[in-house]
Amino acid sequence: VTLESILPVLESTIDPSVVKAYTRCGMGMCQGRNCQRQISALIAEKAKMPISQITQATPRFPTKPISLGQIADSNVTSEKYFIDAE
Amino acid sequence: MLNSDFLPGYLSQSENIEELPKQTDVVVIGGGLLGTALSYYLAKAGVEVTLLERNDLNREASGTNAGSFHFQIALHQLTENMTEADDKRLVDETKLMLDAAKLWDDIEKELNADLGVHFTGGFMVAETQEELQVLRDKQRIEEAAGLETHVLTGNEMREFAPYMAPDLSGIAFCPREGHANPLLVGPAYAYRAHELGTQIRTNCEVTRIEQITGIPGYRFKVHTNRGIILCNRVVNASGAWTAELSSQLGLNLPMGLSGLHVNVTEPREFFLNSMIQHIGRRLTLKQTANNTFIIGGGWPSREEKFPLRYSNIWESAAGNAAVAVRVLPMLKDVQLVRVWSGVWAYTNDFKPILGESEKIPGYHIAMVPTGFTLGPMVSRMLAEYMTQPGAKTCFQMNSTLIAN
């Protein structure tokens, strides 16, 4: 993800989640552990806000990548596809 | 054709800083896929529209789903003991899907934008003999409706999809299925609606819808955190919050909410062209244009109050992964890098709530549980209803709206 692709997004939002959705920054193997602070700084600079007021993209597990085989648990079952509306 | 680069900056801060218009013909509440699509189709028909979104555009279910076109009959449409009436219902529902498929065929031309639309075909897999029978039964219904599907078993199946677990009892393949990029479709509709004159205001939350009399041509006063706007018609397209907002007006909609869990993996060399679903267990699975795998299918996540994002449950990641690895064994060694979660709103019978209230003339609702697949089409249907006097009040609308 290049700075060039991020700058236009900053014209319309101060939400790092929106920046993420449009540019995929924070969606790579590091999941934002490297780039998140730079994004916050860019937003803060553009919006002339203190960096402490910039929200963070929603944190999601896993903290580190882990194989699907390692987490797969066939004991977790679900009888019904969807919860009943009533 | 526009590529997707136009999307991020299109809604300038300046428009958002501008005040609300004082009055408009239609206020559309909700900047998701239905709200943006509806604004576009109304504006195209020459209607004056103001679109209000309390957050940013396309942030909730419209932008947190996996972007799949689900045209095949799925698990949630089936009942325990299928009757002839159920068969007829499914034929009707499948015909609706075919109409939606036609809209998706043309959407990139319609909006003159690259939206990542691909018709790659889709699988529905079966593990047991009973499930295989369901695949055969549903194939018969789909054929009656005009939707092409094929059921493959044994060597034929293993040859057609060599990457799948060889001991599956069978697979159905629907060439018509595919996907689009859910992060682009809603914003593209908004962009084109804006070009056609639609006023868009984000960070603009509707707090109250007031019915008024005495001002000719205006039936509602919509109160927001950014002021008041008068309008003649309101469309509630607020997705998961449709019922909450409608209850203010005394309408009681049979809706429920659930969080849905999605697993995302690292990228691997591309090989899986078609989406995979399961006829008996919760699974949707596909490889994206970024070569990652997106795995979901209805596993729950924890509901949170707006503006918090729904939080993920570890058990859903684990159970979902188990089904995925069972069907596509190579996934066993693929790294999970992220999970995400989005809200999903459904109705009591999974049918759309679409149309105008009888109790409150001028108040419309656009809400559909299979929102990405059907959203653009139901939006167009409602726009037709609102612009063509005497147009049919929308197909098999959920009966409760009429009662309301």
The end-to-end span of chain A amounts to 45 Å
**Rg of chain A from C-alpha positions?**
18 Å
Helix and strand succession of chain A?
Answer: HHHEH
Strand content of chain A: under 5%
* Helix count, DSSP H or I runs of 4 or more residues of chain B: 11
Flag low-confidence runs of chain A. 79-86
Indicate the structural class of chain A.
mainly alpha
Describe this structure in words.
- The complex is a heterodimer of chains A (about 90) and B (about 400).
- By secondary structure, chain A is mostly helical.
- Chain A has helices at about 5, 15-25, 35-45, 70, and one strand spanning about 65.
- Chain A starts with a helix and ends in a 15-residue tail after the last helix.
- Chain B has about 400 residues and is α+β, with helices and mostly antiparallel strands.
- Chain B has helices at about 15, 35-45, 60-65, 85-110, 130-145, 155-160, 180-195, 240-245, 315-325, 370-385, 400-404, and strands at about 25-30, 50, 70, 120-125, 150, 170-175, 180, 200, 205-210, 220-225, 225-235, 255-265, 275-280, 285, 295, 300, 335-345, 355, 365.
- In chain B, the strands form 3 sheets. In chain B, strands 4, 5, 6, 12, 13, 14, 15, 16 and 17 form a 9-stranded mixed beta sheet that branches. In chain B, strands 1, 2, 8, 9, 10, 11, 18 and 19 form an 8-stranded mixed beta sheet that branches. In chain B, strands 3-7 form a two-stranded antiparallel sheet.
- The radius of gyration of chain B is 21 Å and the shape is globular.
- Classes of the chains: A mainly alpha (about 90), B alpha+beta (about 400).
- At the A-B interface, helix 2, strand 1 and helix 4 of A face strand 12, helix 9 and strand 17 of B.
- Strand 1 of chain A pairs antiparallel with strand 17 of chain B.
